[in-house]
Amino acid sequence: MYKNSKVSLVIPAYNEEKGIEAVIREVPAIIDETIVIDNASTDRTAEIASRLRTKVVLERRRGYGAAYKKGFQEASGDIIVTLDADGMYPVKAIPYLVEVLVKESLSFITVQRRNDWIRRISDWTLENWFRYFGNIILGLFIYAVFGIKLRDSQSGMWVFRKGILNDLHLTSDSWSFSEELKIEVFLNKKLRAKEIAQPYSNKRIGTSKLDLFPDGFANLAFLFKKRFGAK
């Protein structure tokens, strides 16, 4: 609990048996319930999470957005925190982020992944560079099409009040859910939203499920559909 608010942590997971235990063991005491959304994994993800006394919910519909929608339905907290199961997000920053949300009377926080990449530039792979510039390109399109300025439009770590979900129209079941959520929040004049930078120096545990070019172009196409498609 934080100041009489129940806090839920929602973690979508598809074949994350290598990282899920390390993430769950880092969860701070401020979290009242941790929910792992097993997105029809074929490995031991659900088994490991259950062994750690974590609530596991199965979502057979594949997709990042589908998993999150299920998780939001299952969460009973007044405040919801999200992060991925691969160990890359700063779990230890959760108490600080919840505190900022409450003290500044915010509706929504999205975490900008602040990577000290200049110091580790020699460690970067070609995939790292594609991800980095792909995120920049998507951010520029979001600014051009919606007028929203985000430094990290694809971040999957958010802290928000559950009640705001009633004011959002979320349609994506795929990776584009991340950008859609932010667009809906930042365009809603009733909500107070903020992007906060946090370092994420952890290396990914396990393999990425993102198919860089197909998923990147799909996210780009979704932006135009969201803005100019039929209502």
Question: Mind explaining what this structure looks like?
Answer:
The chain has 231 residues and is of the alpha/beta class. The protein has one domain: Spore Coat Polysaccharide Biosynthesis Protein SpsA, Chain A, CATH 3.90.550. It is 36% helix and 17% strand. It has 7 helices and 7 strands; from the N terminus they run βαβαβαβαβαβαβα. Strands 3-2-1-4-6-5-7 form a 7-stranded mixed beta sheet, with helices on both faces. It is globular, with a radius of gyration of 17 Å. The protein starts with 6 loop residues before the first strand and ends with a helix. The relative contact order is 0.18. The mean pLDDT is 90.
Topology:
Layout: E1 7-13, H1 20-25, E2 33-38, H2 45-51, E3 55-58, H3 64-74, E4 79-82, H4 94-103, E5 108-114, H5 126-146, E6 158-161, H6 177-187, E7 193-199, H7 212-228
Parallel strand pairs: 1-2, 1-4, 2-3, 5-7
Antiparallel strand pairs: 4-6, 5-6
